[in-house]
């Protein structure tokens, strides 16, 4: 049985007029866009097939090769770097640490102390 990969249909959006490129070229483009280290082409293929944090990189598979556009890379980068609604802001870090410390003190009082690790 042939393996079916979830990929975008052949018709691209009208506003995405950038040409499709192979994953090795897309890795260099990713580095140029984000400034992050250049990912391996297998990483980009995994992002197309399985996704990252529940978000897939839109790509097309043709002749055994994956092709992505610059627009798809930009959209993937934007979506994977959005702060979730339930995330705690970085400014709340010390407050949360104080809450955890208080909770540990209360837990010690309830359990009679923790054993040293």
Layout of SSEs?
Blueprint: E1 21-22, H1 23-34, H2 41-49, E2 60-62, E3 65-68, H3 70-80, H4 93-111
Antiparallel strand pairs: 1-3, 2-3
Helix pairs in contact: 1-2, 1-3
Concise account of the structure shown:
The protein contains four helices and three strands; from the N terminus they run E-H-H-E-E-H-H. It has 117 residues and is mainly α.
Structural description of this entry:
With 117 residues, this protein is mainly alpha-helical. It has four helices and three strands; from the N terminus they run E-H-H-E-E-H-H. Strands 1-3-2 form a three-stranded antiparallel sheet. Strand 2 (60-62) and strand 3 form a beta hairpin. Helix 1 (23-34) packs across helix 2 (41-49) and helix 1 (23-34) crosses helix 3. Residues 8-15 have low confidence and may be disordered.
**Total beta strand runs:** 3
Give me the side-by-side strand order of the main sheet.
Answer: 1-3-2
Q: Structural class, from helix and strand content?
A: mainly alpha
- What is the strand content? 5-15%
Query: What does the overall shape look like?
Result: elongated
Q: What's the average pLDDT?
A: 81
What is the terminal separation in angstroms? 52 Å
- Give the biggest sheet: 3 strands, antiparallel
Tally of helical segments:
4
What is the string of helix and strand elements? EHHEEHH
| Unreliable residue stretches | 8-15
Give the % helix. Answer: 40-55%
Radius of gyration: 22 Å
């Amino acid at each position: 049985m042939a393996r079916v990969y979830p990929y975008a249909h052949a018709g691209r959006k009208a506003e995405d007029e950038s040409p499709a490129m192979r994953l090795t070229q897309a890795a260099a483009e990713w580095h140029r866009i984000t400034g992050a280290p250049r990912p391996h082409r297998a990483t980009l293929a995994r992002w197309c097939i399985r996704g990252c944090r529940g978000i897939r990189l839109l790509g097309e598979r043709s002749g055994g090769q994956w092709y992505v556009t610059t627009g798809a890379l930009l959209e993937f980068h934007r979506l994977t770097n959005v702060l979730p609604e339930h995330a705690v802001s970085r400014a709340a870090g010390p407050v949360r640490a104080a809450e955890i410390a208080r909770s540990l003190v209360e837990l010690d009082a309830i359990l009679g102390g923790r054993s040293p690790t």
